[in-house]
Amino acid sequence: MDEDKKPEAQTPPAAAQPKAEPVKAASAEAASSGADKPSGTAPAAAAKPPAASPGAAVKPAAPARPPRPKVPPKKAPAVMEVEPWQGSLVDALTERFGDAIKEFSTYRGQDFLVAELPSVASIIEYLKLEQDFDYLVDITAVDNPEKEKRFEVIWIIYSFARNTRIRIKASAGADEKPNTAATLHRTADWLEREVFDMFGIEFEGHPNMTRILLPDEWQGHPLRKEYSIIQQDQDWVRENLQIESAQ
Amino acid sequence: MATSTTFLDTNELVLNMGPQHPSTHGVLRVILKLDGEKVMGADCVIGYLHRGVEKIAENRTYQQFAPYVDRMDYVAAVSNGLGYCLAVETLGGIEVPERAQCVRVILTELNRIASHLLWLGTHALDIGAMTPVFYCFREREEVLKIFEKYCGARLTTHAFRIGGLQYETYDTFEKDCHAFCDWFEKKVDEYEELLTTNRIWVGRTKGVGILDAEACKTYGVTGPVLRAAGVEWDLRKAQPYCGYEKYDFDIPTCANGDTYDRYIVRMQEFRQSVRIIRQAVDSLPEGPIKGRVSKVFKPPIGEAYESIEAPKGELGYYVVSDGSTQPYRLRVRPPSFVNLQALDEMCRGCLVADVVAIIGTIDIVLGEVDR
Prior knowledge:
The complex is a heterodimer. The longest helix of chain A has 24 residues, at 2-25. Chain A folds into 3 domains: 2-70, no CATH class; 83-213, NADH:ubiquinone oxidoreductase Nqo5 subunit (Beta Polymerase, domain 2, 2-Layer Sandwich); 217-247, no CATH class. By secondary structure, chain A is an alpha+beta fold. Helix content of chain A is 34%, strand content 17%. Chain A has helices at 2-25, 31-39, 52-61, 88-97, 120-131, 188-199, 234-241, and strands at 83-84, 101-107, 110-115, 135-143, 151-159, 164-172. Chain A is built from 7 helices and 6 strands, in the order αααβαββαβββαα. Chain B is of the alpha+beta class. In chain B, strands 1-2-3 form a 3-stranded antiparallel β-sheet. A 3-stranded antiparallel β-sheet of chain B has the order 6-7-8. Chain B is built from 15 helices and 8 strands. In chain B, α4 runs antiparallel to α11 (259-282). The longest helix of chain B has 30 residues, at 98-127. Helices cover 48% and strands 13% of the residues of chain B. Chain B has helices at residues 53-58, 62-69, 77-92, 98-127, 131-151, 173-195, 199-205, 213-218, 224-228, 235-238, 259-282, 335-340, 343-347, 352-362, 366-370; strands at residues 13-17, 29-35, 38-45, 160-161, 164-165, 302-310, 313-321, 327-333. The N and C termini of chain B lie far apart (55 Å). Chains A and B meet through α1, β4 and α6 of A and α1, β6, β7 and β8 of B.
């Protein structure tokens, strides 16, 4: 569901221009192919050719089109092609949490569920206490600034008894605070601190919600998309390293 | 009735250890709370080596980022590369040819040996045994020579590529691997003679830094530390990747979860790695070494998490693709970072001198902790 939004939100501004250019470059006879482009699959990625059949119909008609090979013939990806995830665990979770879990899916053989943020802590607790998911592998986040709720927080949990690994995903707005898992899994302590450090997502009820890798006084959260790769906290660098820039 | 306090009544002393300390294996700072000689708590301060690897990944193409992963756990660069390649291959749906998988197993197991050798040498040195470090570096040199002959690099090898391998094995690769295995097995006996029944070694490691199975699970600790606590869990067996299911090997475990048991587990892992290398070299199939990967590699929109049994524990890569040539997000689940968190629990109640042994026994690499 989240992945449906991603391309729509991201690609159109980027795709609009590069898409127009190869059409122009392909000279006037490409006008017919250019005409069916906007009506074709609009939210596709940059420089995508029109859907297979209209494009193929145009190609033999055009006598000489040198820039043609530049356009990759591959079908551009549109959305994450997930399959439904079924099984006794899904039934048990649906029965227990109902609408709080919005999606059960499998992608590339890996199972995940999408849940409402406030209920994630209770899902993790239920999975640990009643379904043997006793190992919290990782907590991380993905930043999608275009979305209404910009963060997607991901918990990866594993069960030694079942030898199964699943992911829990939940969207979080900039001001929303997920509940900590540190009371259940002590490993969550540092993992949540790292998420806070890198994204600025605070976890409610965490015993020590401070930065872990960056200095405590550092301003900004580097893994947010608006944070440039060469950006740094200039004031901190000047004050603590006594140099103008660390670049 | 005011009670007079003297310095003798002070029951808590805060002691700073590191970041420049020979026994912290890099730039790790530990703030110890002491009651006399007894450790009441240990607070880790990390991040001195933070380079923002995950941010770099978002600004490089998938192929460009591959050499960066070697710089995290730089003593087990091959394992890092394997984990990254597996995650990207899963995401892109790439088939890796059998020969490439087999060579990957050989190099990864050789790297496990090299990583454990570095651990053994420095760990023994920390505790006061001078001799092993020289022996360990001598043997590690032979592994690095094989790497150098194979790909030209010794430490940050960048041995694997997305889809398989860049280089075909060199002419005497199989012979070198066999020769190393035969020679190295005797060396493991030598280390064991030096340490396993050594009274000082046993005295310094038995019952020190105990972490039981329950604590391991709640702290997410994996690798030899978990196996020393009696949990027979190894990703190579639990969720085999890269064709590990074809090889016959055991998961060494112990019961007590102390520093001595972790030493025993790693010594056994030397022998298991040798077993795997021998089988892999003998069964090395002919064929292509690289699957079909386009030069401009764009995985479909999606995400994948793949993890491997690195020398230090579960090393995971979570890759999110937006359909472009660069990862939208790449997360590394580093075993050292997660395992280090248990230091506080392991140190409580120990003596100051044991802290050094415990930091050594977790086997951390700060490049991977801080990323």
